[in-house]
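User: structure tokens for this one?
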Amino acid sequence: MGDPAGIGGELTLRAWQARRYGAGGFVALDDPDRLLQLAHDIQLDVPVTRIGTIEEVPAAFPNGLPVLPIPLIVPAKPGQPDPRNAVAVVASIKRATELAAGGLAGAVVTNPINKAALYQAGFTYPGHTEFLAALTGASGRQIMMLASPTLRVVPVTVHASLRRSIEMITTARIVAATLTTEAALRLEFGIARPRLAIAGLNPHAGEQGALGDEEITIIGPAIDELRRDGFEVSGPWPPDTMFTEIARARYDVAICMYHDQALIPLKTLDMRHGVNVTLGLPIVRTSPDHGTAYDIAGHGTADPTSLIAALDLAAQLAARRMAVGGN
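Assistant:
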């Protein structure tokens, strides 16, 4: 569902149009009446089919968008988030997770949420990633990856202030994030021997301690440990040069120290095709690499490219998990 006041509903409708005759269908966990009204308001020819069980999806999908009903408390108004609908947003996430964990769905693809609206309703998690980890019993093991055809990035620290993020960086945290990423690249992305580039924290990767010593005292030891264990790891890379075209050809993923160090280059290079992937969960979860876009909600101009990329990647990852005997 995502935030019902954002562009998630329009993206879902447009994704059905784009994938109607393609391989693999999906089901929306949403309020069917709101989707019908939205399709009417923005003049999209998308039939909405209310279903009772997920087993009905294959037969229903070619003829209309299948929806497992999650009713809203109050009607959604584009661009105007209402905390009263937080219960429906949370319910849709829980239900999707249950379906995937139970083997009834191949993956969970989430639309953008408004954390502030959820917080007002008592939601206690920093975001989707942490909530999904708690629901699946994987708290502390979740890793956020942003992936596009141009670049893959993993931030070691995510939803924290910059000051707090720096305090959180430890050798053990870097090693754990890298190991989870390496396993996912092998087992789910099909890369036999992943090349892992680890970013420095300070300008010019510290310049041998002249601009900060975290590369010497924290990041370097993590790299040494990973190399001793046989992984193909390089770094610490100067953050200002590791995202050039020439540099990107030398690795499969960039392990970054904090949120913006990872997300700014990816979103600058290819935001339309960027996908958020949660690693370390017993289920596959992806999402678009953008927010609720309240400023254009209800206008009929939202671009579904990132959601379609998220659906496609989710299907690929789920298929690879099944091929190697995973969940």
